[in-house]
Write a structure and sequence with these properties.
Layout lengths: L5 E5 L3 H13 L3 E5 L2 H11 L3 E5 L7 H9 L6 E6 L3 H10 L3 E5 L3 H19 L8 E4 L2 E4 L4 E4 L2 E2 L4 H12 L4 E3 H9 L7 H15 L9 E4 L3 E4 L5
Parallel strand pairs: 1-2, 1-3, 3-4, 4-5
Antiparallel strand pairs: 6-7, 7-8, 8-9, 10-12, 11-12
Helix pairs in contact: 2-3, 3-4, 6-8
The structure holds calcium ion (CA).
Length: 235
């Protein structure tokens, strides 16, 4: 890695924090760390890290409040570390502006993949003016966002307009979870009266068209109670 990314690690469990710091450092990241939400907010402002890794259960302030405070002034990627089974916490965190999450206990490979995807999506956002790359390739899937063509293993896939929009949206956010709410608003507009059932029906049709085995999707996976995630470029 030419340029070292700075990660602000906010975790109040000293053992987990030290373990994560070791792994992140050995993977080429600079790590700033704290166990307190208030310190995290001041470090976020003073160091402007490339990414914040945030445990939601902190002693001095709710992690959700940390997300809302950071989002008042910064788009820095925030990856939340959440306890297993707290789906509503994840959705709230994403709605508050977090970019993604990992669930405890997590594997380091998964954590590193989430960090890479969040950093890449944030640099894409920053460079989106004048971006020329319109072809997205994820394994055998190819999405050409200029010609609005989707192919799987070089075979064109016929999608309805809505299906295409969903695939394109998820592909532009490869590796990152998108909540049902975000997808619904992006595809049908902020005031459209539609429910997740409509999205589910479209997703079933998309999977039938792009997946080898729609019951074991390779491209678009379901994050139960949260949303959908397109596979990352390199995992
Ligand atoms: Ca904690």
């Amino acid at each position: 890695m030419n340029q070292k990314y700075n990660i602000l690690l906010v975790e109040d469990d000293a053992r987990i924090r030290s373990f994560m710091e070791t792994v992140l450092t050995s993977n080429g990241y600079n790590v700033l760390e704290t166990d307190k939400a208030r310190t995290a907010l001041s470090m976020a402002a003073s160091h402007n890290p490339d990414l914040m890794l945030l445990d939601l259960g902190l002693s001095d302030m709710d992690g959700q409040q940390v997300i809302r405070s950071v989002r008042e002034w910064s788009n820095m990627p925030i990856v939340v570390v959440s306890a297993r089974g707290h789906e509503s916490d994840k959705v709230t965190a994403l709605d508050n502006g977090a970019d993604d999450y990992v669930t405890k206990p997590f594997g380091m490979a998964e954590l590193l993949a989430r960090i890479r995807a969040a950093l890449r999506n944030s640099s894409l956002r920053q460079n989106s003016s004048g971006a020329s790359g319109t072809v997205i390739r994820i394994r055998g899937l190819m999405v050409d966002t200029e010609k609005r063509i989707v192919k799987v293993n070089d075979v064109p896939v016929h999608l309805t307009q809505i299906e295409y929009k969903i695939v394109a949206l998820l592909s532009c956010n490869a590796g990152k979870v998108l909540t049902y709410d975000v997808i619904l608003k992006e595809i049908w507009g902020p005031y459209a009266s539609c429910d997740t059932q409509l999205l589910r029906v479209n997703m079933a049709n998309i999977r039938r068209k792009i997946e080898k085995d729609p019951s074991m999707p390779e491209y678009i996976t379901t994050e139960i109670g949260v949303g959908y995630r397109m596979a990352d470029y390199d995992d």
